[in-house]
Amino acid sequence: MKYSHPTQALPLLSSLPFVLVIGLVSSLSLTGCEEFLEGVVHEVEFPEHEPALAVTLTIDEDAQILRLMVSKTAGVLDPQGSEVLSDVFANLEANGTSWLSLDADDFNGDLHSLALDAPVHLAGMPLRLEVEAEGLDSVSAESTMPEKPVALAELELAVDSVLDPWWEEFMARDRITVDIEGQNGVADWFILELQSRFLDPEWGDTATWWTEYMEGPPDPRVNTLHTGEILVSDQGLGDGDLNQLTFFKNNIDPDWGYPEMEWRLSISALSESSANYLLSMEAYDQADGNPFAEPVVVYSNISSGFGHFGLRNSVMIELE
Amino acid sequence: MSHYFRILKPLLTLAAALCVLGWSPNAVAQSFTLSGHVQDAASGEQLLGATVWCSDLSIGVAANTYGFYSLSLPEGEHQVVVSYIGYTPQRFSVLFDQDHKMDVELVAGTALGEAVVTGELFGHIEEQVQMSKIEVPIEQIKRLPAIGGEVDLLKALQLLPGVQSGGEGSSGLYVRGGSPDQNLMLLDGVPLYSVNHLFGFFSVFNADAVKSMAITKGGFPARFGGRLSSILEINLKDGHMKEIHGDATVSIIASKLTLEGPIVKDKASFMISARRTYLDILLRPLFARINQNDNSSGTVEPRYYFYDINGKVNWKVSDRDRVFFSTFSGTDDFGFSTQDTYNQSGGQTVNTESDFGLDWINSVQALRWNHEWQPKLFSNVTLTRSYYRFNTGIEFSDAITTADTTINERFAALYRSGIEDYAAQIDFDYAPNASHYVKFGAKWTHHRFSPGATQLELDFGQPNPIDTLLGAMDINSNDSYVYVEDEVAVTSRLRANVGLHASMMHVQDKTYGSLQPRLALNYRLPNGTALKASYAQMAQFVNLLTNEGLGLPTDLWVPSTAKIRPQKRWQVAVGLADTFGEFELSLEGYYKGLDGLLSYKDGASFMFNLETDWEEQVTQGIGNAYGLEFLAQKKMGRTSGWVGYTLSWSNRKFDAINNGAWYPFTYDRRHDVSLVVNHELGGKWSTSAAWVYGTGRALTLSESMYTTFFVDEQGNIYEEEITLPSGKNAFRMSPYHRLDVSIVQTKTIENMKRSLIFSVYNAYNNLNPFFANLEENSNGQPVIREYGIFPFLPSIAWRLSF
């Protein structure tokens, strides 16, 4: 029997097609399932890691010691990880002239450090860092030292109280109010850190300053970092002063009586790159271990390398 | 108030100008109107988009969403052809000496010997002023191969140029470089906020309940607003007006049943369609056996199912009035529970139970009233509600029993988010004369956003167990818009759709306004080819916060707020369109600029930030998308289908992402090809195949690491190793390609049509990447290792239509 069109034969195969289809489907399914169990689709060659220099250096105008860490980057799968380098040469220029340098002799086992004998006045000055290490491309970064902040701060004890939900006890709330002079025409960045220490040895160690956590009402000028530091800025909010920055900290139940304590507030003006670095590091630390978090590209101002060259200028305000 | 007036003033001016055009004495004096509905002769189903064409004057109109048409022509006798894809056209000779009302019934199927002169048909792609709009007949979609035999409308849309999927198996739509929240998904005119079942592997649209589907990717007419990238219009069947009919489908994933029929013959009808998966029922004995064989670590009981129900009632109240009520409800429920009992030292017996659950619920309702005020004027009033809720929770409890005491402990965390809308809308169609077709209307929507809150319950035997709510408060907002558009025949060769859409949103004591001009042009070249161009501005007041690439129902719907400005977009497109025989061809180029895009900042996520305001976790930025799209489509005949190709770019820039540098959008896809063929083999057999190819998805992978340090307040130095990507979306997954094939055997016995559908998903077993990791291969070399989830998947489905 002949058919004018192949499809005319289909109905006649009605007893066969199911056997054929099921046979074909079964064999292909088994092949598919085998691959499915393996799960791996492809392995795409990943580019070989090109080691580069990573530099971390933050200079505070009042710092007595300068710390620099230089490491050689590694591929993310390298079991050895990145390597902190000792044999490097770092040169710092201030306002276009060589200011100081560090080399292998300044390496103390963890990083390079250099004592600064006398305070140096760098405010408003452009600084340039250049780092060289054998076998790696040299890197550089530039930044300008911000002016020393002009600020007022006030501490008021027990202005409010809050119920601790866990212990179901009231805690006192102390208020810190801060006014910082801002520059016109540029965004200002400051980092605030509240510190305390006991004055009475019966309450605790009287030599050590501890960071106190502060929090404030929602304020677009304020970013609270997980370290307890507060980053404030007028970026995007118009120029001018950063007035009436208000924060609270919890204190113990006032019925227990306050321990004698000393309080101070550190206020540091930051270069914009320092602020960007701090924010990206905050995002990085917050995302660490969270599989749902967006990936973080940590900020860097090091050309041809990684890391950060930051500048800050600080004042310490004693709080009565 | 002055703000409102500023927004409305240009719109009122345009409306007044259009009224003057429409009511010009010349036009009124010389034209008469033929109006009515176009419907299926057998079922009475309204045929939206059917064309009514005056062949001697080469003027025509398309029936609106409710099947109503209004054609105004100069006095005299004219030849009128009424046609619709898949139906036998009807011709009439009509004397236009007064207004006529004429309902036209078309018979499904093209009668043998019915030669239709192409020039007599209006509605070909080159005739339409609207560009960037694609309609795919539902019957064509139903024949496409499908995972598990479950036809999916959104997956069919992903086969069109300019429309991409989110990833392997995903129903997400990425239109012309936009994100899924920028698509306005309208089910019978009501926005749906989540269209996913089974984590996005299926959409909520049940093909058996749907009458028509169309997607508009650009050149939006002024009647649409509120989203930036696309408008997807899905219309449910109205219900058979004459007799009871139904469809029952059994596939390996789900079963569904659709019934439709008259409540009062030719006056009122209903349609109801329900679907449910049965993975949970099928797996129950398997897990019972597993738990029985190995209960060393307690018992585990997983669960997953989804169901959805569509319903519609259609009542022809009078010749001029119709009332419709449509509803949809869908639920997904996923989770597992464990139970274990063991003894521990001290004679204690511990009974532990845990439960993890994740469910999401969608529900929409619409009540609409159509009224024909006069042959030239038609109105539609709609009241709608749209509701979406997502819940996920985890609960642990244990009971520690000793000889004389039992201590109960419990920890529970329930996270929920959602959105609920109530809206009222009025739309008018006004056809003053042969040269103008005006649409105008207004809509008001009240939104209540619940952008994520966690209820925490802790009871460890403390005097006062903790029961507290953490997270974001509900936000209420109101948005509204008014619009006017006119499709105008400027010359015999040039037609235009000119419109203005004015929208406004009020939230948290802040009002946002947006004026959005729209323009579409169609110029017929001497050879008949249409040269089309369009410009459209759009604004969007609602946003979906999503972790790129995950596509989980955990994504949060959030509004523009006092801090978050609305999303905006402008798009320009130019193109050519023509019909060659049975093939419609179109070539379009587009460019769009985006502003106010919302994204999580680097490092942010919806998880583990219970006390952080969502507004603190987001950043806004800009983007662009541009490309070229080609489509050749054949909708009728023994062989039908289409070929599509897209060449495109899509980029983003946010200050707080990727250090402020431009980066490719996750779904930036350079090349996208699709080939779809349906073929009637003859006799009882038909077959279809779909092949797709797309450039790999952009991907962010950590690449290198370095050591840094920090110093605490006591001067202690700590080292920290930082891992970081070279850049956002700097890598690409492997290209995606897949062939799906299906064969359908159909037998008709009396009035019953039985179909057996054999489907193969991924016929040549190319396991496409679903996710990727950076790993070491066996040689210790770093590789991007890609993992797939869907191999060759055969399936069978059985369908009965009566």
3D structure, described in words:
The complex is a heterodimer of chains A (320) and B (802). By secondary structure, chain A is mainly beta. Helix content of chain A is 12%, strand content 44%. In chain A, strand 11 and strand 12 form a beta hairpin. The longest helix of chain A is centred in the N-terminal third of the chain and has 22 residues. The N terminus of chain A is likely disordered. Chain B is mostly beta strands and 802 residues long. Chain B folds into three domains: 119 residues, Immunoglobulin-like (Sandwich); 592 residues, Beta Barrel (Maltoporin, Chain A), CATH 2.40.170; 26 residues, no CATH class. Chain B is built from five helices and 50 strands. Chain B has a 22-stranded antiparallel beta barrel. In chain B, strands 1, 4, 6, 8 and 9 form a five-stranded mixed beta sheet that branches. Chain B has a five-stranded mixed beta sheet with strand order 10-17-18-13-14, with no helix packed on it. Chain B is globular and about 100 Å long. In chain B, 48% of the residues are buried. At the A-B interface, helix 1, strand 1, strand 3, strand 4 and strand 5 of A face strand 43, strand 44, strand 48 and strand 49 of B.
Q: Name the chain pair whose interface involves the most residues.
A: A-B, 75 and 81 residues
Stated plainly, the CATH topology of the domain at 151-270 in chain A is called: Immunoglobulin-like
Number of domains of chain B: 3
Structural class based on helices, strands and sheet pairing of chain B: mainly beta
Report the CATH C-level class of the domain at 151-270 in chain A: Mainly Beta
* Rg estimate of chain A, integer Å: 31 Å
Q: Give the CA-based shape of chain A.
A: globular
Question: How would you summarize what this structure contains?
Answer:
Chain A is mainly beta. Chain A is built from 2 helices and 19 strands.
